[in-house]
Amino acid sequence: SPNGNINKQRLNKNPRRGKGKSKGNKQNNDDTNNDVDEEKKENDDNNNDDNGGWILKSKNIHRKTTIAHKLKMNDSLMSMLFGGEFYQVIRSKGNKRSKPSVSYTPFFSISLDINEYKTKRVSDALQNFFSKPEEIDYRKGKANKSYLISESPYYLILHLKRFIYCPEIGSYQKLNKFIQYDTKLTIAPHLLFDKTVMKAAGNLKKLKYELRSVIVHDGDFTTHGHYISYCRREDFYL
User: Fold this and answer.
1) Is the CB of residue 93 less than 8 Å from the CB of residue 133?
2) Could you say which DSSP state residue 67 is in?
3) Residue 208: its H or E element
4) Mean pLDDT for all residues in the chain
5) Strand, coil or helix: what is 82?
6) What is the rounded CA–CA span in Å between residue 228 and residue 220?
7) Which of 16, 13, 2, 86 is closest to 44 using CA atoms?
8) pLDDT above 70: percentage of residues in the chain
9) How far is it, in rounded angstroms, from Cα 124 to Cα 180?
10) 3-state DSSP helix/strand/coil percent for the chain, to nearest 5?
11) Which CB contacts under 8 angstroms, 24+ apart, belong to 29-36?
């Protein structure tokens, strides 16, 4: 339901009957209750249609978390080839009694922070993205937001954050740092969320990708430069 948790009301099929009640009255009561149930179901379906793409699960399958909501991606060639889905969890830092908020959000690319000194490979940046929660403002306080991949895209786009903001000069600078990457990328099972069993690394399967193309910014400044693309053709890149 778009209005949050709603306790289901059970309608009594048979109010307390006297000895003189006939079976016909029982049948009428059953028909009335069936009509009410069908009307309630129809109203719930209409509310879901008018909810702007957000669908709330009718059952709390996450138990210790709030009911999950899901933002659906419009069907298109772009979403079919590059669209993926995150399993996102927000945990409040100040209120320990507050239940985590769970949602499913679509993505077209993953932006990776490479500014940390120990980050020397794409796999390192990818591991940090999923293992280190992001601190955000949440409900008049602070919370940690973390991600797992619940639906993997056919083509995975990884964006390296080379343009960083420098408060000392009040502008952006390019981070000219060497980052190593291989032609093959393996994403570990603990970074994947299996919706069939509702837990991470549910099927213990790894996610494997093979490099198809690279886009590089050529230049020392953020305000100008050129973008060069290298695409794979058979066994070499152009």
Assistant:
1) no
2) P
3) strand 207-210
4) 75
5) helix
6) 14
7) 2
8) 68
9) 10
10) 20, 35, 45
11) 36/11
pLDDT tens-digit readout, 82-101 = 999 999 999 888 777 778 88
For residues 124 and 38, what is the distance between their CA atoms, to the nearest angstrom? 54
Cα separation, 41 vs 36, whole angstroms: 9
Which 3 state secondary structure label does DSSP give 77?
Answer: helix
Q: What token pair was written down for 112?
A: 């990776």
User: Is 50 exposed, middle or buried, given 0-12, 13-18 or 19+ CB atoms closer than 10 A?
Assistant: exposed
CB atoms under 10 Å from CB of 193, counted, come to: 22
DSSP state of 148: E
217, burial (CB in 10 Å: exposed 0-12, middle 13-18, buried 19+): middle
pTM as predicted: 0.66
Element of type H or E holding 193? strand 193-194
Which residues share a beta bridge with 148? 87
CA–CA distance, 217 with 173 (Å, rounded to integer): 13
What are the structure tokens assigned to 30, written together? 């059953």
